[in-house]
Hints:
Blueprint: H1 2-20, E1 24-32, H2 35-47, E2 53-67, E3 83-88, E4 91-96, H3 104-116, H4 123-130, H5 143-151, H6 170-179
Parallel strand pairs: 1-2, 2-4
Antiparallel strand pairs: 3-4
Keywords: Signal
Protein name: EF-hand domain-containing protein
InterPro entries: Dockerin_dom_sf (IPR036439), EF_Hand_1_Ca_BS (IPR018247), EF_hand_dom (IPR002048)
Amino acid sequence: MKPVRCQTLRSGLLxxxxxxxxxxxxxxxxxxxxxxxxxxxxxxxxxxxxKDSSVRLDTDxxxxxxLGGSGATAVPFNPDAAWRTVKVGNDRRIEFNPQGPVPLAQxxxxxxxxxLGLKEWTAxxxxxxxxxxxxxxxxxxxxxxxxxxxxxxGQSATVGDLNGDRKVDDADVGLFGAQYRP
Length: 182
């Protein structure tokens, strides 16, 4: 009888998750330098945002994005490289080749895709990767992820804590439901 109750509880929570789910927003922490790079980053993020899942720029942290190198990294670019990542002191920098083989907008999308772990620059890929609901990191939000969430339900755990409040509860189930698409 106990397994039936557990299954009933899980089915009920999945139904609740699908009903409670609401529009989500994620932030990308990078620090673009200069109007040209800032505009390219904003346009790139707009391209993967949707009404239900917006992606916003947060300039309070993350890698510094610049056009060209500066200081110790002001070495010439390989002409075939559109961008490069370097460490300068405590900062990680993504530098874009001003004479690169692709337009700046494309180079920014490529660099951000690498930075964010996106396999492709689409709203669907961003929703899966950035929502936090892909708990096992396999590139899809599915019942395996729900099983991980439910395994940690009611506990103080990092796996399944989608809202960052240090516990896995109904709020996390709701966030999962907003991202799950059967």
